[in-house]
Amino acid sequence: MKQLHKQSSANHRRDEEIPAAPTSPYSPKTLKHPRSLPRSINYLFKEQRLLFILVGILIGSTFFILQPTLSHLGPSESNSAIPRHVTTGVTTTHDQIASYSKSNFGPGKTGRIPVGIGNRRLRIVVTGGAGFVGSHLVDKLIARGNDVIVIDNFFTGRKDNVVHHFGNPRFELIRHDVVEPILLEVDQIYHLACPASPVHYKFNPVKTIKTNVMGTLNMLGLAKRIGARFLLTSTSEVYGDPLEHPQKETYWGNVNPIGERSCYDEGKRTAETLAMDYHRGADVEVRIARIFNTYGPRMCLDDGRVVSNFVAQAIRKQPLTVYGDGKQTRSFQYVSDLVNGLVALMEGEHVGPFNLGNPGEFTMLELAEVVKETIDPAATIDFRPNTADDPHKRKPDISKAKELLNWEPKISLREGLPLMVSDFQNRILNEDEGKGLK
Ligand SMILES: NC(=O)c1ccc[n+]([C@@H]2O[C@H](COP(=O)([O-])OP(=O)(O)OC[C@H]3O[C@@H](n4cnc5c(N)ncnc54)[C@H](O)[C@@H]3O)[C@@H](O)[C@H]2O)c1
């Protein structure tokens, strides 16, 4: 009888819980009977359970209220890999790691830095990093202990220029065209990707202007998205055939918008405009360098630029080609001086634009003489008609960079040329161009 009663009460409970209609496996859970509520309240009041719950809530809330203050006073303050910001003219790598890491955490910029990210190395992307200037910049950044990602489509750059970093875990190389967007997490972007010599940028002018406009837009968009600082390598060509001499950054230039060189000159001018618009309109930290003629090891052998032309011709025992009467002037900067200037600009507090060049002015004939002295005094000169839109005078006024970046070039043409010549001699003798890793 007792058993029968038990069974029937069990059945009764089951009847209460199981719904009348058969349920599909996806039907919502049945609600418990409302009569279970007073039983739960009863349960809570028994054995001081409610008191324990309230004490638990109190302890939890106190911890969460005090936690930000505690973490601020914790060991990270005294023993941190992220030093506090120091307001010197040039911020150090570590200061930047702290500020960049913070800037990557939302618009409030006050979020705490997750462990493992806060003390990581500065990560830098160099577009065009397999080219002449880019590869020297990469060398400097790697030597400083930064993580470097090179983006290059190898139009004029070569793997040979960065092959010595292969196998280094702090170095990455991505074959990519900047005309297409890319998503990376970095702290700084040095944007160099663009063919720089007339033979290269005139080879496909539409591609050149696309690289300057769409490539720069893509990299600025990336900088905005991830809160990275962005440096544009513009050019002295933005001054065109200048009517002011030497050229200051305040000079707006004398540029032909429809000439053969316009894809480069106007492309760079547009790139500067884009950089400033992202700076003013989207708060992107930009830096603009206007680079004047630069020379050094790893320049393309036959890129038509005057220094590489003369040096390669003198080594090959060919006459040095001088366009026009050879009285047009240029200034020549050694590549390590430029790289120091780019880094000082990136790490300084000023947007620019800044002229980065060597103010020592040489006529083409004087340059030819220095090349002859350095390589082959018997070399001859072959005069040819001048090319269209070739500027007559080019000399930077670098007082702004001297004052605000504390930068000026150190290496004279007579010191720098022999350093380039030995690299060119090796490459010409080994005929490595075209047979390298490109
Ligand atoms: N060297 C100079 O005298 C000088 C003067 C003024 C300005 N600059 C500027 O400095 C930068 C570097 O010049 P450089 O002399 O090292 O030239 P470079 O031709 O040696 O290097 C340019 C690099 O950009 C890469 N590149 C070109 N188009 C690309 C694209 N669409 N996507 C990805 N990569 C691309 C090339 O493959 C190359 O590695 C350029 O922006 C140039 O305009 C140089």
TrEMBL record:
Show the InterPro entries listed in the entry: NAD(P)-bd_dom, NAD(P)-bd_dom_sf, UXS-like
Q: Which residues form the NAD(P)-binding domain?
A: 126-418
Task: List cofactor names only.
Answer: NAD(+)
- State the source organism's domain of life: Eukaryota
Query: Region Disordered: which residues?
Result: 1-33
One Pfam family here: GDP_Man_Dehyd
Question: For bias kind Polar residues, which ranges apply?
Answer: 1-10
Keywords, alphabetical: Decarboxylase, Lyase, Membrane, NAD, Transmembrane, Transmembrane helix
**Which pathway?**
Nucleotide-sugar biosynthesis; UDP-alpha-D-xylose biosynthesis; UDP-alpha-D-xylose from UDP-alpha-D-glucuronate: step 1/1
The leader peptide range reads none
Query: Any stretches that span the bilayer, and where are they?
Result: 50-70
Record bears the keyword Metal-binding: no
Record-listed E.C. numbers: 4.1.1.35
Similarity section: Belongs to the NAD(P)-dependent epimerase/dehydratase family. UDP-glucuronic acid decarboxylase subfamily.
Q: What does this protein do?
A: Catalyzes the NAD-dependent decarboxylation of UDP-glucuronic acid to UDP-xylose. Necessary for the biosynthesis of the core tetrasaccharide in glycosaminoglycan biosynthesis.
Can you name this protein?
Answer: UDP-glucuronate decarboxylase
Q: From what organism does this protein derive? A: Ziziphus jujuba
